[in-house]
Amino acid sequence: MIRSPAAKPASIVGAMKAMAGASPKDRASFAKGHCVRGIYIPSDRADEVTKSQSFTRPSRVLARFSVDGGNPLMPDTDNFVLRGFSFTLGDIGHRSDILTQSAPVHYARTTAQMLAYLKARIPGSDGRPDPEKIKAFSTANPETLHQASYMAAHALPASFADTTYWAVHAFPATNRSGETQFIKFKVVPVGSQAALAEDAVTTNGGLLRKDLENRIAARDIRFSLMAVLGRLGDPILDVTIRWPHEDRRETVRLGTIVITAIEANEAPDGSVFNPADLAEGIGYPPDQIFAARRAAYAISLTRRR
What we know:
alpha+beta; Catalase HpII,  Chain A, domain 1; about 25% helix; about 25% strand; globular
């Protein structure tokens, strides 16, 4: 089998921006976001999974809810658009940034495939992508449809607060006994609050932000941070597929993320949730997409500044 050479992260960032028509000052993806703050409360089982002080000690939380796409002004009312939830746990010496999304798989297995996926969707002179080009790429790369198929089959709830999020990568976690196993992070809402008020939809398409404001004004928003435990033979290099019987796997609750305040609109652009920031006890996933993501975030930040 002939393997395509890995794509350079800078090329991926450029293709993302070209596909979205994004401004150099905007994020390459998940450009529309809402920054929030809160606290993290570890469970008494966290050190069974990882000795990382980011997860075993209480800390403040900086987090960002977002919707996929390179346009920060896009409406956020489409329940079939991927959502993101990025958060920082720990202190300066023991900081971990975890990036999660509302689908358990990524849309590409390798960086070369990711770049080709993006290029197939870059708009032409008429401002629209070529559907035949997308169809041809999808036919040749069926695994790139796994994410879209999941999203089509699982409509999102009407709130960031009621959404389940996954980190699609397999992270090597070392526990208090020095034992290492792969885990996947899963963020699960605790309970569900009342439906949106009738006046929540605003003229600028800020439904999800208004919902956050309403919920936080009434009470805090809570998520359980879970570790899905890996097994020998799990596919740790392919982020387009799930682990066998993943939804029925043993999980350990690492702790609770409590969101207590929403920040100003401009706050998210001053904060970078860098996947390279992982405190000792959580290692880097070995797949190509994570390696590219680490580099791409630094490139995107430099370009935005």
